[in-house]
Each structure stands twice: as C-alpha cells, then as structure tokens.
C-alpha cells in the first residue's frame, strides 16, 4: 500500500506521527501546515491536479486511502438530493434503474469522469424533482426526530429501572442492618442462650423478602414508520405455524395434441444443442444451464404446432 503523505511537502506519518491529514473534493491529501500556507487567501489550486479548491472544503481524513473518504462524502452529499424511495416509483425495475443512476453519478464524481456533464445532470434532476426532494427531506427529518425521541425514552426507562433496583437493594441492606443492630442489643440485654438469640435473628434476616424487578407501566408510543414501512419499536411477535402435509414435487404434465416433446437428456443426441452456445463460467457458477432454456423453447414450439381449437372465446 502506498504510504500516506502530503502532496505538497511529501511528509508522511512515518516521518512525523503527529501530522494531521485532510482531503478535499479532488481526493488528494494535505497536512494541516501546508493547508495554512497554500490557502492563506481562502482558495487556491491543488498542488497535484491544479483543481480550484477552497480552504473550508478540507475535511479531516478518517481512512488510510483518501479516495474512501471522498466517496463517503460524495455519497452523503448526493443522497441528500437523490432521496427517492421505492414508493415514488410505479415498478421495482424503475426503482432499480434509479439506484444504478445514483451509483453512476457517484462513480463519475469520485473518479473525475465527465464531471461537468454529471454536475449538469444533477442540476437538471434537482430542477425537475424539487418538490419530491423537499418532501422526502422533511419526511426523513421527522423520522430521525421520532427515532431520537424513542432512543431518549428508552434511556430514561433504563435509568429508571436501574434506580429502582438500587433503591430496593439499599432498602434490603438497611433492613439487614436493623436486624443486626437488634441482635447486638438482644445479646447485650437478654439473659437467654446466645445461640438461640443468634438463630432467631438469623431466621429473621433470611425472611427479609428479596426485591424483584417491578413491571413498569410504559406509556403508549406513537408508531412512526421508516420510509421502508417498518415501524419504530416494532417487536417481533410469535408466529403460529400450522403443521400440515409435507411438500411433494410432482412434475408438470403437458397435454399435447401431437408427438411428445423430447426430454432434456435427449437434446444433445437429437441435435438441438448443435447451434446453441455453451454456458460461460459465470453462468455455470450461478446455476444456469443452457439445456434448460433450450428445452423451454422446444416445449413452446411443440405446443404451438399442435394447438387445438376449442371454439371457446
């Protein structure tokens, strides 16, 4: 792995462990001293790629590879505008295409590929989907606020439970101390056998009830859904499973009005596979067999050839 170093002074962590590195939109790393010197006026070119940069655009580098930080920041910035959910699309295919478009935009910005066209594409998307972007931002903000409130409430309940346990333990400890104090007084004043007195107060101490955790009456919480439809604080309920007969596979029987369709094992010998390509290694790894597709095509052809007209509409 390439050693992490400043692109201006070439200083590295190996030479100076106290160096603090930051990165900008171009992805090149600079130390804090060089940023102070090179960007005294607030802006200037990157020492390596000469892209215009601003001093307030530098952020502390978290990863060894600055490109990872750039991708994280770019993804965070893009997803603020590209915040549509599956509910905003008519079909799953359209939503998947939208996700692929987001990844293409992030890749282009991180790798500096067609940056101008990509930024124009982003600006056009913002203009066309201004209302949807603002609506989804407000929705996400409300969900985050509800989640914060739920977390805070859970913290308060946990703290209340801990306080209850500590109070019960302190009360039980005080009761035992009072029993011990009475035992000492009885031993000092009574003329009875000391063993009988000790046994009596030992039984009293054992009879002190052990504190059990109390069931807290939790106030009702207004359920708030994530954008995916999952509710906050939704507990997993037990599912009742009804026992039934086991599944038994039965092959599909095709009713044909002509000769029977060849089996999969006969496709090679009958010459059906002669003009069909073989599977690639990736397809084989995914469990795809070209014979299965060939058999489906042959079955469709045979079904179409011997179709019987029933007279029904």
TrEMBL record:
One Gene Ontology MF term: zinc ion binding
Alphabetized UniProt keyword annotations: Coiled coil, Metal-binding, Nucleus, Zinc, Zinc-finger
Domain of life per record: Eukaryota
Matching SMART domains: RING
Predominant location category: nucleus
BP-aspect Gene Ontology terms: nucleotide-excision repair; regulation of transcription by RNA polymerase II
PROSITE patterns cross-referenced by the UniProt entry: ZF_RING_1, ZF_RING_2
Assigned GO CC terms: transcription factor TFIIH holo complex
Domain RING-type, residue spans: 6-49
A Pfam cross-reference name: MAT1
Cell compartment(s), UniProt: Nucleus
Coiled coil segments of this chain: 115-180
InterPro entries linked: MAT1/Tfb3 (IPR004575), MAT1_CAK-anch (IPR057657), MAT1_centre (IPR015877), Znf_RING (IPR001841), Znf_RING/FYVE/PHD (IPR013083), Znf_RING_CS (IPR017907)
Name of the protein this chain belongs to: RING-type domain-containing protein
Species assigned in the record: Aphis gossypii (Cotton aphid)
């Amino acid at each position: 792995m390439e050693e992490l170093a400043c692109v201006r002074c070439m200083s590295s962590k190996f030479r100076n462990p106290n160096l603090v590195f930051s990165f900008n939109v171009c992805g090149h790393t600079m130390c804090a001293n060089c940023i102070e010197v090179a960007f005294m006026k607030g802006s200037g070119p990157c020492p390596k790629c000469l892209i215009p940069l601003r001093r307030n655009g530098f952020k502390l580098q978290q990863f060894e590879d600055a490109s990872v930080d750039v991708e994280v920041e770019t993804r965070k910035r893009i997803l603020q505008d590209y915040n549509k959910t599956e509910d905003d699309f008519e079909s799953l295919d359209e939503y998947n295409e939208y996700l692929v478009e987001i990844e293409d935009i992030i890749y282009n910005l991180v790798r500096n590929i067609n940056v101008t066209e990509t930024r124009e594409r982003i600006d056009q998307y913002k203009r066309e989907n201004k209302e949807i972007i603002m609506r989804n931002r407000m929705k996400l903000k409300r969900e985050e606020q509800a989640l914060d409130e739920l977390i805070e409430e859970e913290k308060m309940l946990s703290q209340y439970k801990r306080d209850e346990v500590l109070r019960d333990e302190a009360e039980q400890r005080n009761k035992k101390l009072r029993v011990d104090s009475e035992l000492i007084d009885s031993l000092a004043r009574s003329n009875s056998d000391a063993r009988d007195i000790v046994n009596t107060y030992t039984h009293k101490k054992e009879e002190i009830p052990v504190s059990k955790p109390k069931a807290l009456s939790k106030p009702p919480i207004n359920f708030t859904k994530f954008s995916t439809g999952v509710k906050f604080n939704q507990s997993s309920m037990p599912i009742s499973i009804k026992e039934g007969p086991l599944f038994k596979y039965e092959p599909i029987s095709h009713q044909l009005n002509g000769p029977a369709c060849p089996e999969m094992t006969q496709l090679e010998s009958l010459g059906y596979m002669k003009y069909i390509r073989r599977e690639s290694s990736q397809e084989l790894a995914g469990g795809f067999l070209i014979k299965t597709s060939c058999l489906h095509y042959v079955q469709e052809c045979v079904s179409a050839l011997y179709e019987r007209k029933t007279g029904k509409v």
